[in-house]
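queue> pop job 88
queue> type: inverse folding (structure -> sequence)
queue> payload:
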C-alpha cells in the first residue's frame, strides 16, 4: 500500500504548476468485521477502502476535494488527475484564507508496525466456544490501517499499523452485564481465554443479591472496564486547549482551581506506540508523547 501511495502522490506533485502547492492525504484500510449476538455470528464482513483528499493551494487560496479510489494505481492515477483539473477550475472563485496553515518545511517520516492478526474463522471458532451457554454480544474488527501525507513542497509522511479489537458483553439479565475487551497487534488464544474466564467469574457475581449500603464513606475499586469508560469520557474534551479556554473541559477545576488527583496518577498521550498517525492533517508532526497529567497535576494540553 505504501508503494501505491508513493506512486500516486509523486504523479500528482509532478503536475504542480508554478505558484501551486499540491497536498495529498490518504486513508486506507483492509478490515474484517464480525458481529455476535446471543453467542452466534450475525454478520461477517470484509471491507477494503481507499479515501484520498486532494488540496490545491495558490497564493492564499485553498480548495479541497475528496474521493474514493479503487486501490489500483493505474486506474486511480487518471481519477486524481481529473480531480486536480476540477480544483484548478474552481480555485479562482475561492476567497483568500487568512488562516491558511499547513506544513511547508521538507520532512519525511515512516512508521510501520505489522502485527500477527487472527484469521476470522479462528476468531469465530474461539468466540463461539467461549460463549457456549451464555448470552454473548460482541463486535470484532481486525486489519491494517494506512495513513499517508504528501505535498509538492517535499513533505512526505507514512503510517501503517495492523491491529485487532474485540469488545463483548456477557448479559445476565435486565440491566446487568459484564463488559470486556481484548485488543492488540497479536492475537493470543490463551490471553483471550483468560479474559473470558474473568468475565465469567464477574457474571456469577452479578447473580448474587444486591447489597443495600448505608450512607457513608467507602473505599471503591474501579475495574479496568470502568477506567476505560472514565478515560474515554475525558477524551471528549478533557485535555484540549480549546476546551480549556472555552471552559468546556471536564477537568476545568484542575485548570482553574488547582484541583489535583492522586500523585500516583500520570497520563500520557503515547502517539509513538498508538494507532493514530504521528502527523496531523496539515502535515505537522506530533510529538511522540505528551504528558497530560503528571503526578496528579494537569500538565500540557493537546
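queue> result:
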Amino acid at each position: 500500500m505504501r508503494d501505491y501511495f508513493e506512486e500516486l502522490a509523486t504523479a500528482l506533485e509532478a503536475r504542480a504548476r508554478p505558484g501551486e502547492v499540491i497536498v495529498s492525504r490518504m486513508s486506507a484500510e483492509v478490515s474484517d468485521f464480525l458481529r455476535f449476538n446471543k453467542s452466534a455470528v450475525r454478520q461477517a464482513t470484509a471491507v477494503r477502502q481507499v479515501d484520498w483528499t486532494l488540496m490545491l493551494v495558490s497564493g492564499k487560496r485553498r480548495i479541497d476535494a475528496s474521493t474514493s479510489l479503487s486501490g489500483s494505481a493505474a486506474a486511480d492515477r487518471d481519477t486524481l488527475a481529473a480531480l486536480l483539473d476540477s480544483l484548478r477550475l474552481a480555485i479562482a472563485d475561492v476567497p483568500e484564507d487568512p488562516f491558511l496553515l499547513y506544513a511547508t518545511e521538507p520532512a519525511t517520516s515512516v512508521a510501520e508496525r505489522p502485527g500477527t492478526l487472527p484469521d476470522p474463522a479462528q476468531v469465530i471458532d474461539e468466540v463461539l466456544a467461549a460463549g457456549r451457554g451464555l448470552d454473548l454480544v460482541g463486535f470484532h474488527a481486525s486489519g491494517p490501517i494506512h495513513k499517508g501525507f504528501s505535498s509538492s513542497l517535499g513533505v512526505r509522511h507514512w503510517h501503517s499499523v495492523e491491529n485487532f479489537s474485540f469488545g463483548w458483553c456477557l448479559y445476565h439479565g435486565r440491566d446487568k452485564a459484564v463488559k470486556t475487551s481484548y485488543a492488540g497487534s497479536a492475537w493470543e488464544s490463551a490471553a483471550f481465554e483468560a479474559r473470558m474466564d474473568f468475565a465469567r467469574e464477574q457474571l456469577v457475581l452479578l447473580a448474587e443479591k444486591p447489597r443495600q449500603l448505608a450512607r457513608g464513606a467507602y473505599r471503591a475499586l474501579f475495574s479496568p472496564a470502568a477506567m476505560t469508560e472514565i478515560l474515554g469520557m475525558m477524551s471528549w474534551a478533557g485535555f484540549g486547549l480549546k476546551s480549556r479556554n472555552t471552559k468546556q473541559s471536564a477537568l476545568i477545576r484542575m485548570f482553574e482551581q488547582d484541583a489535583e488527583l492522586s500523585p500516583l496518577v500520570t497520563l500520557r498521550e503515547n502517539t509513538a506506540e498508538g494507532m493514530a498517525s504521528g502527523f496531523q492533517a496539515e502535515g505537522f508532526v506530533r510529538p511522540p508523547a505528551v504528558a497530560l497529567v503528571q503526578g496528579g497535576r494537569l500538565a500540557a494540553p493537546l
